[in-house]
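Sequence in, structure out. Go.
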Amino acid sequence: MSRTKIVMAALASLVAGAIIVVYAQWGDNKSPALAQTSSQEIAQGDEVEKPKAATGSEAPKSEQPPAAKPESEAPKQAQPESAAPPGSPEVIYDFNRLPDEIRDTLQSIVVAAQSGNIDEMLPVLEENELPPMLSATAVSDPIAFWKKASADGQGHDILAAMLNVFSSGFMRKGEGKDVMYVWPYFAEMDLTKLTPAQEVDFYRVVPPPLGVEMKKSGKYTYYRAGIGADGVWHYFLQ
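Output:
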C-alpha cells in the first residue's frame, strides 16, 4: 500500500473515532485495519500491467500469492495504552457492550444534558427507579442542588461535567444483581500509575488545576457515576 493510502486510512480512523462522543449513535470506536490485500486488488493490478510473453528459453512463471508470514512475524493489532494492567477490571470504550437498559438510561441523560437546560434532567430523574445519590447527604431537590453547586447558578457546568464523565471509558464491577457500570474508569484506579493515554482521558474529564492535585494524592475526587445492569442510575457525585 502506498504512503498516501496509509495516511488517508489513518485520517479516516481518526474521524471515525471522534463520532463516539455523540452517545445517541452508540457507535463502535474500533480502528479499521490500515492495509488489506484482496483478490479484487490483485485482479485490478493484472489489468493495468499485463505479463510479458516468455521468449527463448524463458518459461512463463505462474503468479502465486505471497506466502503467509509466520505467526511471530505477522502484524498484530496494537492494544490501547489505556488498557488496565492484568488482574484489573477491564476498561471498556464500546457502548454496544452495555445492556440495552443502560444505553436507554444514558441516552436520556445525554439528551437532557445537551439541551443546556438543567430542568430537562427532572423527567430523567423521575423515571429512575430511585433518586440517584448526588451527595454524601440526602438531596430532596436535585435540580435546586445542582443550580446552587454550579458556577453560574444555572447548572451549565454540571451538565458539561456530566457529558464529559459519560463520554469516557468505563468499568464493570461486581457480579449478578450487584453489577455496576462505573464512569470514568480511572475513578477506580491509582492516579499515580496512569499511562500517557490514560492521562489524556483523565484531563478530558478533570479540570487541570484540580487534576494536578488529585494525581499527587493518587485518589480521584471529581464527578463519578454509576448505573446498574438494570439501567437504574445509582449516583452522580464528587
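Check: Strands lie at 171-173, 180-183, 224-228, 233-237. The helical segments are 3-18, 39-48, 100-114, 121-127, 142-149, 156-166, 196-205, 208-217.
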